[in-house]
Structure formats: structure tokens, C-alpha cells
Amino acid sequence: MATPYTGARVLGTNAVISESFAKQLTDLPAELLEHILCFHVLNHVDICKVSCTCKRLHDVCHGRGKVWAHQHKLRWPRLQRFYQQNESYDWLKEFKTRHMVGQQIRRTVESISKRFFTEVPCVGQVLGDSFAEIESLGAPEHFCADELLEILNSDKRKCLTLKYYAKKILYFLRQQNILRNLKVFLERPPELQSALEGAVLVDQYCNPLADVSLESTSAQIEEITDKVKKNLRVKNATHPSLRASDCFVLENLEFQRQVICALNAVLYDQLQYKGNERDYYNPLNSYIHQVLLRRTGIPISLSVLYMTLARKLGVPLEPVNFPNHFLLRWCQNQRRWASDDIYAYVYIDAFGKGKQLAAKECENLIRHQVGADYYSAISTSELLLRMVGNLLNIGKRGEGNEKSYQLLRDSLDLYLIINPDNVQYLLLQARLYFHLGIWPEKVLDILQHIQALDPSQHGAVGYLVQHTLEHIQHKRHPVEPEVKKRSVPEHRDVLYSVGLIMKHKRSGYNCVIYGWDPKCTMSQEWINTMRVHQLSKGADQPFYNVLVQDGTCRYAAQENLEPHSAPLEIAHPEVGRYFTEFSDTHYIANEELQARYPEDIFTYLTQDEDTLRYCT
């Protein structure tokens, strides 16, 4: 018989147990007690109280039992995939650790806004010491990621600033893990480097918040393989590929032809895969999970898919780094690897629906002649360099917005992991970081590496070193941000407040105000380029910093803006940097923005058929 503990005895929230009821309860079998304590309405606080009631219930709620296993699963369902079903765990210890990590993560994220609000905005940018704080916790990475995801999945319209920085930290943590995996991948012998796995790692690094994995990608490719086998079975029910494993090569060229024919029929006729000629420079064309989802891509991404499928069915295709149009080659010689003769191969254009070309026919794709070297097979690491190089060029072609800068940063990171001593791209990376005003210490490390590799770059390196040191010095003595008050006479013409949802009268775009100036503060060159003098009040009127629905940031004249008649949320990645909540009519500034514009707390006055008027 269990001996009741002294003091309050609790089962569930605020439920007091009498001694007679406690005795009846504790007389039940342990299995039944566990079943009762796993009832979904009981949370971890209830279980803690129950376990303090008496020794009998304390023993039932032991750390390795079902009760705490259930609480852990109930509280953090995403974490269950990290535990083996047949293993024994101290679930109470796991619960405490995860709970403690969650609290520490939240404290760190909450502190970031105050520390880094004045930094230059850039997607994915949070200074290194914040990440070091999280890494110093020594907690399992999946605990940290789970807490960050919990923040991101909370109420859509609230805690926007917390979500903004949680997203940046999660982005960084996942990228660091992917980089580690990529380095391990590149250390393998070339014959063990799968083009598909490499493409997935590139995809994951550029899309760290997306659900991309080698397992899910392989499963989708397996489904396509089954369709090809089904097609093949109709043509040749005894084909060797129908019963062979993945690791085999068809020796008979006719069997290989049958596979290629079935592959083309399924991939291009049945599944309607095609080259994306209309939107060729869209980065989505390079991401393998998007190629599978949208069934379109560019030559190199479609070649990776085609080659992977062909090899699974016994046809050993090889990647060819043909200029401006990636190809595959298929040896027509029975002694496949013996010949260096470019005419011993058929070249397959995966972008052109699997069209087969003779060597010199390939030149028609690019409309000029090339040497025999361009028909050679390349390694997986060379293929990845070509793939990342494409993304890098797309980033360079970008409009100078946050998305193009992030793509440029990500592709540079990947390129320099694969080819760390490329001086051209190291210099580009240093210039990019310098331009964005981020990680000056890392810029100095890059420049030192460049100087060691190529002393002839001392001119460019010296210039960047000098200005980077000036930037570091400036950071040590930061200038306090200007506080703008409406009560100041020179601000009397400013009509609109930060947080208001506006519409541009001429361009028609929707936006939210996150800052203002009583007069235009841009350079004369900008004023001339934007034809500000053509406005009725020219530059001598308030101008507003606005976040636009399309993801851009603009500087708009007061006479071109009007309050939106039906305020709506602005889907801009930087909204959380300035605002903490959307309140159906406007955004509520976070503490940092309020400190800059302390009198910009607006009140609704009146509404007529033409406009909404606000005052402070």
C-alpha cells in the first residue's frame, strides 16, 4: 500500500484528491495508472503535481516510463523521428533538456532585435556572436531547430519581430549543417559521389527552410523508375533491367537503347517534363526538388535527373560540360571506357526532350565550333561547380534586392567550398560582404587568403582592407540613430505614420511605411534619375521609406501615397524587422522602431469616400 505524501494532492489542474480517493487510485495496476495519466488533457505541469502526490504515483511517473514519453510526444511531436523505437530513453531528462533549450533560445532571439536593429538589413544576416550563443548551449541541433520552428509556426499576425530573427537563426543553423554534410560528401572518392546527392545538397543550402531531403527526392525518382520499368515491360517483358538491382550495367547495347526509349517516353511524353525556355534564368530551375515539382528545368538539372534514372536502369551515361548547354554522353562502343574518340558517343540533350546528337551536331545548339575537350566527361564536383556557377550568374543578374543578394551569397559559399582557392570568387565574396556592410572580420580573413594565393591582387586587397578597417572602427563607436518627433515644427508637413498601409497613386503598389524624412534626403543624382523635380512639390516635401508587397524597399514622395482603403498585410521579408504585429488596419511598431519615431502612434479620425485620414 502506497503512503500518501503530506501536503496538497493534485491530479490534473487544480483537482484536489482526498486521502480515500488517493488510496483507491494508487491501488490500481501500474498499467492502468499509466493509461489514465496519458489522458490528453493532462500537461507536464499536471504530471509533475501528480508525481508529488505519493510514492506510488511518483514511481508510475518515472523518467523512462510511458507517462513522460507521452508528454514528450504530445509537446514536441516533430522530435519523435530522432528517437529509435526500440531504444530506452530517460524521457523526463529529455523533456527537461528540451524545455530548458527552448527558454534559452527564446531569450537569445528576443535580445537580437535590440542588438542588431541598426545593422544594414540583409536576408539571413544576424551577427556571428548571436549564433555562437546558441551553439554554446551544447544542445542537440534538432532541439534548437524545433524551438525556432515553434516560434515561426505561432500566431501568424503576432510576434513578427521574434519570428523575423528566429527565421534568420534557423536559416543559418541549417546552412551550417548542410555545409558540414557537403564537405563530407566532397571528401569521398569520386566514384562514390552521386550527382543526385550533390544536387540535393546545393538545393538544401539555397533553400534551408524548405523540406528537401535526399530520401524524399530519391523516393520521387524511384516512382519515375517504376513507371519506366512498366513501359519497358510492355516492349520487352524479359528485359534485364526489370529484375536487376540499382548497381548494374547493361552490357548489351540494344538493351540500353530500349531503356533510353522507355525513359524518353515516360519522362517527356507521359510526365511532360520539358526545358524551361520561357523563364530560363529562374533559380528554381536549378533546384532538384523544384524540377521534380514543376517538371521543368535547365539543361544541367534535367541532365542530373535523366542520368540518375538511366543509371538506375543500367545505362551508364556521363555528364558533359558542354559550353552554354549541358549534355550527357552515351558510349556506343562495347568497350565503353576504352575510347577517347568523341565520335564513339551519342550525346543526349535532356533539355531537348532526350534528343540524341552526333558530336558535331551539338555545335548547332550553341552556333559555334568547339574543341574535343568540351566533349569530355566531367566529375561530380565539376558538375556541381557548373550548377552553382549558374546560380551565381543569376544572382549577379539580379536587381540588387535582398533575394538576389542572398542567392549571390549562398552560391558563392557553395562555390568556394568546392573550389576554395578561386581568387576571382574570393574577391567577389569580399566585395559583396563589404558592399552589404556585414561581417567585416570575415572580409579581412578572405582578403588575407587572397593575398597569400595571388600577391598581384595587392591593389584591390589593400583598398578593401583599408575601408574594412574603417568600418570596424565605426562599429566600435556607433552613431545613435536619429529620433524623429512630430512635435518639432519642421515635421509639421508629415501626414502619415510608420505602420500605415499605403497605396502608391501612380504605380499602384501596396506598401507599409517604416520611416520618413521631412524632406527628400537622397543625392542629387538620385533626384534627377527619379525625376523628382516633376512632382508638384519636388523634393521639398516629406518622403517615406516603404516596404512594398513585391519584396522591394522604396522611397516615395508624400504626394504619391494615399492610405489604403482596405488595409492588408504586406508580404515583405523585412516586415518583422520593424513591426511586431498586424492589427487588421495597420502594423504596430516594435520597441526599436518606436524609439526612433516615439510620436508616431496614430489614431483613426474619420473616413469618407475618398480617403482615410490619420493624425498623431
UniProtKB/TrEMBL annotation:
Which GO molecular-function terms appear in the entry? Answer: DNA binding
Superkingdom to which the source organism belongs? Eukaryota
Signal sequence, renumbered to the chain: none
Task: Give all residue intervals belonging to the Hemimethylated DNA-binding domain.
Answer: 493-590
Q: Which residues form a coiled coil?
A: none
- The membrane spanning regions, by residue number, are none
Q: Name one Pfam family in it.
A: YccV-like
The family database entries (PANTHER family) matched by this protein are listed as: F-BOX ONLY PROTEIN 21, SI:DKEY-261L7.2
Instruction: Please give the name of this protein.
Output: Calcineurin B homologous protein 3-like
Give the species.
Sinocyclocheilus anshuiensis
Per the record, the gene is LOC107667246
